[in-house]
Structure formats: C-alpha cells, structure tokens
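Tutorial sheet, problem 5. The two components below are modelled jointly, 621 residues in total.
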Amino acid sequence: MTPRGIQIISGPDFNMFLEAIMAVQTVIGPRERGDQPGYYLFSRLQRAEDFAPGYKTTTLPPKKILASPKEKLFSFTFDKPPRLRLHVDASPFVLLGVHPCDLAGIDALDHAYAHPPAEMRWSANRKRATIIGLDCQPDAYCFCSSVGTDAARIPCDLFLTPIDHGYLAEIHSDRGRQLLQKANTSNAGEEELAAAKRWRQQKVERIRAKFDAPLERIADILETGGLTPTWKETAKRCYSCGSCNTACPTCFCFDMIDELDPDLRGGTRYRTWDSCQLLDFAMVAGGHNFRGERWQRVRHRWQRKFLYLFRQFGRPYCTGCGRCSRACTVDINIVDVTNQLIAAAKMEG
Amino acid sequence: MMPFARKPRVAFFDFACCEGCQLSILELDEKLFDLLAHVEVVAWREVMSEISEEYDIAFCEGSITRQQDIERIKTIRDKAEIVVSLGTCASISCHNALKNKWAMNELLALVYSEYGEHIDTIPARPIADVVNVDYQILGCPVSLPEFETVFKRILTRQAYTPSNQPVCVECKRNDILCVHEKGMVCLGPVTRCGCNAICTAFGDACRGCRGLIDDANLEAPVRALFGEKLHPIMAEVARNNRLTGKEIIARFSLYNNTGRVGKGEESSDGTA
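Model answer (structure tokens):
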C-alpha cells in the first residue's frame, strides 16, 4: 500500500512524541516482561522507555487488546422484564509497535467480523484504536513471506521502519497524519528511503522458514485429502492444549459464560477465547463429538487456516507470525507440518 | 431468584485431607459475607464450634480411606439434599491414593509395623465412588472464584461441570509466559483448568492438582523429550532436571492415582 506521506523522526523526538500521546490517551505496545528478560508482551506503556521497539515477538498477538480473552459483553437482571446493560468502553487508545504480520491478523479479523451478521463489538473496539505499525526482522519461526504478509500495511494509521538514529514514518490515514503532528519530523531524503528499503530487503532475505508450495496448492492438497497418516503422526505428539489457537492472531472462536452477582439478582455475560483443539469444542447436545479424535482436530486447524477461510475470504487465515509454533508445548511447527503435507501429497501423485 | 423454600442450611465435613479447602474458603474475605447471606451455616469445624445434625447442603472434603468413612458419608448423603465433593482429595483422591499402590496389609506393616492390625484402612477413594455427588469442585486447595461460582450455581439450582480444558488455555488467556521457556516441567497441558492458572501466574509450574483432562496425551511429553524430534526447550528441561521419561510420567501421577483405586497389587511406575 502506498503511503500518503513519508516523514523522518529522530529517536529522541520519537520518545517526546510518545510522551505527548501518553499525556492524552492510553498507549499499548510491546514491553519486556518483568519476570523473564528477552520475552515481551503487549501491555500498557507508562513511559516512552517502556516501549521495546526491537522485540521479536510476543506470546499473544495484539488481538488480545481488541478482542479481550475474557470480554465483558453485558450485565443482566432477573427482574420482570429483565434489564440488560450493554458494556461499552469508548475510550480511544494507541496500539503501538504492531508488526506487519499482526497488522494482517487484525485485517483478517476485520473481514471475518464484518461478514454478516457483522460483529459490532469488534468494530467498536477497532474504532477506538489508532494503530502504529513497526517493521521487524524475523526469527527462526517467522514465515510471513510464505503467506504474503511481510510488507502488510493495512490497517495501520502510521508505519515505522527503524533507520539509523530514528524511524521512517509512513502516513497511511488522516488519523495517522493528525497524530504525527504531535511530533518533530523532517522530510525523508534519498538516503533514508534507501535505508528503509535495505531494512525490508534484509528482512525478507533472513526469513528461513518457508512453505514448499504456494497457498493455492496447499488448499488443493487439503481439499483432496489422503493425508491421514501425517495427521495421525502429528497428533501422537499433540497435547491438544489449545496453545496454537490461543496464541493465534486470526483465531476467533469463542465461548460464552454467565457469572451471577453475589446477591443472585443478576449477573454478567462474558465472551472467552475457545480452541478447536480442545476435546469438548465440537461436542454437541446428546454427547456426540464430531471431532472426537485428536488427529481430526489437528487436521481441522490446517483446514480452517488454509482451506475453508482461504476459499471464503481469498486469504489464508495465517499471518506467518509463527506464534503457534513458538507456543506449542511439544514443538509442533506449522511450517514443518505443512511441508510434510506437501511432501505426502507429492508421494500420492 | 431463590428456588429453595427457605434458607438452606450448609455444613462442611472433612474426611482424609488437610482441611485446607474449608480453611481457604475463609480467604474470600468480605465476599464470604455476601455469599453466606443466602444460607445458614450449621457446621464448619475450621470456623465455629457449633455442630448441627440437620443440613441441606453438605460440602465434603477429603478422601474415603476407612471403613467408617463409608458409613459416615452414607449418613451425610441420606440427610443432605445436595452433596458437594470439595477439593481434589474428595473429588479424585489426591495424594491419599498414593497408598493404593500397596496391598493394605503390606502398607500397614510398612508404616505401623506390629501395631498395624489396629488400624482401619482401605484403598483411598473419591467421595463420588461411594455415594452420588451433585457437585464436584477440584483443586488443591479449591480456587476461590470457582468455589464462588459453584456456590451460586447451587443456590440457583444450576448444574456445574468442572472444566475439561487444560491449564494452558487459562495461561494463554492471561498472557502468562509459558514456564517451558524457563526450563520448568509443567503439567499444565494435561491438567484441568479452573484455577485461572494461578501457579504459573506466580512463576511456578503446574503440579497437576486438578487431575487429568479427559483426553490427556501422556505419551506426548515423553515423545517431546526423548522422541525422534527433540523439542529444544524440553531437551533443556530434561537435562536441567535430570529426568527420565519414566520419571516425567511418574510426576504426572502425584495427584492422579484414582485410576488405580482398589488395585493395590498394581505398581505405580506411571505406566498406566
């Protein structure tokens, strides 16, 4: 996506910029975990120094800010007639330091939630957020170039690329332009544009994990079937712990729970993240489970990411962020398994 | 909304256990008063000295480990409209069932030598093995938010089923760093949640106190540690802890011995 403008902002100016934003609204971004150095999470930043621009990844994607793991929907009473009170939080915030893969994750959810019947809570939260993207360098788990998200810019308002002594800031929306007015910026010269280009080239060159076939081919392979031995072999190692789903930036399956007030006169309804890898996920009334076998649930994850939603929305519901592989408690790697499937399909002819 | 005809009378009973569950409920602090406003407490040994023999809701903690326990829990069942097994000892026998790997006469000789013949002991069983139980609450000790939820479900006559999701789900929902990353052995992937991942939240690993999920894959950790493809972090875990595959699985049986209830002759090397 072509930016509407490009500016340069120096490191010290950027910190002042952040402090200026923090003075008027909440800023949420990647910060180092207090309990384990070298690990990061999206969380509220109190000071500009809290921002960790060099973070490789976070356990949870920024999805957790826009669709909270346990989201309060409404409260209710047992009066006659019952009274419902919608829980709404309209306060704006800045979501800072979102990598291209995670921008793609938010975009994927924009499409999924906009699909009729549109999900109003997601879009309300999206309106609250001003998103500042940030370019990155890959680690061993990243495979964004295989799913076409390495240069994603939608849906950010500003996008930062690290250059010497600061950032190159791309403006992608009016909101982004307005926000950047809080900063001391200068026009980008040839040298800075070249530096940002080098950063992007280096990024793509450094990506080691790759799918051995294009996405269309992977969808065909999944549709054709005949991959049961690979699914069963993978399932032998799988705990069905759901970490791949709960760490995924595009998974949106949920469960509902009601919690009663202590006085038992009413309560609150919450929406929580669910996972198709869990045994009870596909359990229906009467006790029938249409994915009762572990390997069926493993297969379902790939089919959702690379077949069903790929065909429905014309994009994979995978951003190449590698979080599922990092989060896996037994080291099942999404790229390795996908390539095993591709190899198995070749053997089948 | 109060489907009980009058304020239900609540009693707490303990069998073989540390009574930590009934004690920990006190930590609900001021919330406790909100909950107790709906009931009349008639027996609660850790809290009051009065005891009444008439009650509607019986919270029973501890495992059944003696012949006389069987008679006692049957009496409670007869009197109470609702019986709740409170905590892991009452629900899945917890550590009490570690003794089940010995024959009872061997066990008595081992622990009490010649005095063993005076001791009444039987293989440890969960309460639901002896009488019908209406509600089960897991945890060592029980989690306070879950106790509160179940308490409210009882009062509104709604069912409650302990979660069949692993602790990893709650760990992720709370954005807690996986303790594998710190080189710890964690039973979270195979253990029922409902605790809101309290141990990992405070930097410890899951010890499995709520019992195994229904489809726990007990082969997976051994495969990951010693299988054809070595998980880099799990390999580090194995090295740091100097654990063999057998030992890893044995760790899984600390809280999870009920599968061997009444099978005293079977060994408990974790090969179940």
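Marking note: The first strand of chain B starts at residue 9 and ends at 14. Full credit if you identified this.
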